[in-house]
Amino acid sequence: MDPQHPQAVASKLPTIGPKDPFVKVVRVLLPWFVHEISIPMTFDQLRTSAAPGHKIRALVDHLVLNVTNPALLNALLTLKWHFSTLQAGGINETRAYACEIVAWRFLHRISARDAAMFCLYELPQHRVEVVGDGCHPDVTEQSALLPQYRGPSTSPPVVNQRFDLLRSVLNIRGSRGSDSSTEEEDKEHSLSSFAGLTGLEIAAVADCKKFLSQRVVQKVVDGIWKGDIVFWESLTSTTKKKPQFYNKKTADIFTRLRVPRYIKSFEVVFIATFLFLLFRVLVERNSAQVTGFEVLLYIWFTAFAYNELSEFLDTKSIFYAVDLWNSCDIIIIVIGTAFFIVRVVGIYQDDPQIIDTAFDILSLEALFMVPRVLSIMSLIPYYGTLLPCLEAMVKDFVKFMSFVAVIYIGFLGTFTLLARGTFGVREMSWFLVRVFFGGSALGFEIMRDINPQLGPPLMVIFICMTNVLLITSLICIQRDAFARVIAHAREEYLFVYSVYVLQASTSKRLTHFYPPLSLIPLILVRPLRLFYSSEKLRTTRIYVLKVTHLPIVGAIWLFELAHEQVRETSTFSSMGPPMLRIQPPHLTQTPSSSSAHLAEGPKAAKAFTSDRQVGNGKVKQQSESTIIASETDVQDQVKELSGQVKDLSSQIAMLTALIMAQHAPIPQPGEDEDDEAA
Predict the structure, then answer these.
(1) Alpha-carbon distance values, 651 to 63, 638, 646, 665 (Å)
(2) CA distances from residue 139 to 167, 384, 591 in whole angstroms, order as listed
(3) 143-168 per-position pLDDT tens digit
(4) What gap in Å lies between CA 58 and CA 81, rounded to an integer?
(5) Which portions of the chain have biased composition (kind: Polar residues) (predicted)?
(6) Which phi-psi region, left, alpha or beta, contains residue 523 (left: φ > 0; alpha: ψ -120 to 50)?
(7) 677: burial class by Cβ within 10 Å (0-12, 13-18, 19+)?
């Protein structure tokens, strides 16, 4: 049988059950990509070529019609990460591209609301043992979409989570042999480090930039950013985190505090106030006593550090490391801690010099605080594109300067030994630094002082290598790095935007206190853990949150009230199957039913599976007649339209020739080519 024949391809398609675990889904899909994608190709070649493109389309059709497992998207993105880590280029890179293509084409073929359910499906974790009253012993402040696992032996530390993920990705093996052997492999390598991650989080961690830049995925991200998709329906001690569409009539207004748009907006206000206090303390520079503004600065700094620690613990270390601004926050905390320590030592010893050193250290905060305030500008496409460009250029610069340092140290040792008694190591190092950054005249002035015979030729060689060869090479490397990123400007911006949104929405805490109000539960509520039960403690936190954040909620309510007057529709209010796209009848769902599926979260997987299975039966009965009728109508319309276009083109050509013959000047050489190209 011809391997390109549809039946031959269908015989190799993976079989995935609706209740298969995540590990099995990954291992069933892995052999297909290994066997069917066997030729190295670029991303564009993979999308446009006939043979691999036919195989990918066959797989997508199979997944849309026959697979209802909610972990399908998570498995495809995990396999993309797996192939990307195996090899920098070649066949594995092509397979990684294929995984992304299959993932987003699958989402395009289903309704947008079902696509949101797949993107936000959180991989289940192992269930914990129940206590005497039948409740899970997990703290309700960390209640997740599914029961969490906190086993003492198998739960990896937070710091090593990325390492565990990489190890799990590299050790993925396809299913083979009998079911018993597969079960033993599942027990041996369960991919437990992926538990609790959604499809969007895996895409962000695995650098699936092409997947995240797709319109159907960005609709989900925009829905989370604007608050059309929420994870908390109410602020009660019994509520659970689950993705759902926001219903203004039934939802608790205090849940709007968890909307990423408002979290980031008030974060910018907090950091701007932090920067104002910083400049006020530096301008006063009171060495005799601690002023009121300095006390406020300490409060703001403590709230900032505590907020970063909470964000690190809530959003997982792997996801926290993806955002570039978090590195800036860590540096701010380090500098602030150093200032506080030196300031305390200076006051204790009553040493003005140490106190001045403390304020000098605090002055370094401005280098990072000002860009941190303007981090909100990364949501603008222009600045959101420049940020990845600068990041890539800095990485290449650091790599190149390591090579420059080797050459510099070699010349420094030679010149210092030749100039013994004339220049010391410190003087010679500064001379060479000045020569490296363009001070060639200085090198020619001191070359005979270094050594009359060897000084001139060595200095000429050093100047030629630094000012001509190395500097030119560095400029070329930086230009290539900038061009490499800017060529995919839209993907880079949408990736930065997606990470920005997901980082603000992945926390599993029900009560989110805005800084500096976050210090109130830290000081007043957290010590009560020694006396109160977890349920009563959570109720107390909810009460404190509502009392302290009532003005903020009022501001959010006024903003949304005014915004509703100018906003046409919400992101998902009228979202259905894309227009002008032929889809199977069972994929066109009503908004109410789709909304119910997402509102129920993973618990709706069974209902979602049964609905799609019923639809599959209808497709099998009606597909032949529907497809034939659709193809006939489309062919008739295309023939009629092509005939009209030909007639119109001939008339336009005759009219153009007549006008040019009467009025047009004689064309100059090269004009025909330009007109044709235009």
Answers:
(1) 48, 20, 9, 22
(2) 29, 38, 35
(3) 333 333 333 333 344 445 555 666 66
(4) 22
(5) 587-596
(6) alpha
(7) exposed
